[in-house]
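Reviewers of the previous submission asked for a worked example of the structure-prediction workflow described in the proposal, so we include one complete record here. The input consisted solely of the amino acid sequence. No template or homolog information was supplied to the procedure at any stage.
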Amino acid sequence: MTSESIPLLRNPAKEKMSRGETVYSMTVRLVRTVDIAAIAHTAGFDSVYIDMEHSPFPLDAAAQICMACNHLGVTPLVRVPGLDPHYIARVMDSGAMGIIVPGVQSADEARTAVRAVKHAPVGERSLAGSPPQLHFRSFPADQTIRALDEASMVVAQIETRSGLDAVEEIAAVDGVDVLLVGANDLTLELGIAGQMDHPELHKAYLRVIEACRVNGKTAGVGGLGGRPDLIRQYLALGAGYVSTGNDISFLSAAAAQKRQQFD
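From that input alone, the workflow returned the following structure tokens.
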């Protein structure tokens, strides 16, 4: 094949963030079928993030959802359970366009995540031939690596005191795209569990947003799906990625609302 034959590999969420637009994501913890990709697309979400940290989600189901998302123009991200480079490589080789790493504590951990996602010379990920992101077509290795690495994303979750203390260093790591505040775990760490209005959480959000602004990264809002007022507040302050909630909460809320219609 000629060098011009490789298709443009798009990551719609990453493109939106590069333009300064807000990305809205839904989390998948319950649904195991590709239907969720179509639902996310129809509902207007830019991204789906499959939670393999807080669910027994199997990798084969995640791979199928990733493929469906890619075909629909919805960016598939996977929250991995930890920093195992081999597991991260399997997730990426299954069709994910990026990973979300929970509880990033330091710049070194952020660099480990980047190395696991990117190929040499930036990272250490091995090259799998005919990747699903390119519809299983084969292209010259240098073109494949360039396309995959330019489109892939690394999201570092800030949800511990150590991570917050190191947020400026984490934001400065090349290859990290988003710093996503995990408000539930962070309030637990700060001794203010579940207090989303607490000044300490507000200060943490401001610190993350400022670190992202200085380093050209996107600040993400997580754990505030039930508080759209706070989400709007942090978007106005400069955040650009929103984790809106998960399929379990969406289904539960809709089911309860439907039942109440008959009371």
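The radius of gyration is 18 Å. We consider this example representative of the routine output the project will generate in years two and three.
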